[in-house]
Amino acid sequence: MAIYRFRVSFEDYDDVERDIDIKSNQTFEDLHKAIHASTGYKVETSSSFYVSNDQWIKNEEIAFLPNQRKVNNEVALMENSKLSSFIDDPHQKFYYIYNFDRPFDFHVELIKIMLNEEAGKSYPHVSRSLGEAPKIAGSGVLPQVAATAVSDDFDFLNEEEFQPEDTDELEQMNEMGITTDQENTGEDEEDEKDEFMDEFSDNEGYDADDVQKDDY
After folding, report:
1. Which strands make up the sheet holding 3-10, listed edge to edge?
2. Please, what sign has the CA dihedral across residues 100, 106, 109, 112?
3. Which of 94, 159, 177, 199 has the largest CB neighbor count within 10 A?
4. What is the DSSP secondary structure assignment for residue 160, as one 8-state letter?
5. pTM to 2 decimals?
6. 131's torsion region: left (phi>0), alpha (psi -120 to 50) or beta?
């Protein structure tokens, strides 16, 4: 009995991999369950393998707990599909989607074919495990996302539609001598007042108190 070794990797998490040894006459359902015995994810979840080419383009589907539309289209079922029936290449690839409600995408590649079972080993068997599987959204535990720190110098922006990534731009403006409107408010008003007085002054002992209101 031939033994297939599949390398299973998350499409979006390069540092998480599992190598799974499985008998050629076992089914895609056996592989599906073996994958999630190693990730800790719930097994009874609608999922599908797709026969793929080297570019991971999805073709024929092999489904687990399919919806009614797939049933009507007579999709192949994991529990009835032996692995050997879909292996045409010594490096056969399958695109695998787990949990269509909150999907994780996987690449599943045949990396080795062994001709004999290893004595005393039960199959499927996880022969290699690298990295911790990411938490599923909605499970109550999610990876922590570090908040972007915003300088206290920009607290006045909290009441506006300010994005934290604008901080770098504002700091660069300050380095160039360009300050915010609020910081300049008092100085600008004083400058405007001086300009107003200069414009209407005859520079000859002008006293603002002597200005009389126009008669209307």
Report:
1. 76-77, 58-64, 47-52, 93-98, 104-114, 3-10, 17-23, 125-130
2. negative
3. 94
4. T
5. 0.64
6. left
Total H helices, total E strands in the chain: 4, 8
Beta bridge partners of 165: none
Range 48-57 contact pairs with CB under 8 angstroms and sequence separation of 24 or more: 48/96, 48/97, 48/100, 49/78, 49/94, 49/95, 49/96, 49/108, 50/94, 50/95, 50/96, 50/97, 51/86, 51/92, 51/94, 52/93, 52/94, 52/95, 53/93, 54/93, 56/93, 56/95, 56/107, 57/95
d(CA 142, CA 111): 32
The span from the CA of 136 to the CA of 41, in Å, is 8
Residue with tokens 């209407």: 200
Record the tokens describing residue 214, joined without a space: 């126009």
Q: Can you list the pairs that 187-190 forms with residues at least 24 positions away whose Cβ atoms lie under 8 Å?
A: none
Chain length of the chain: 216
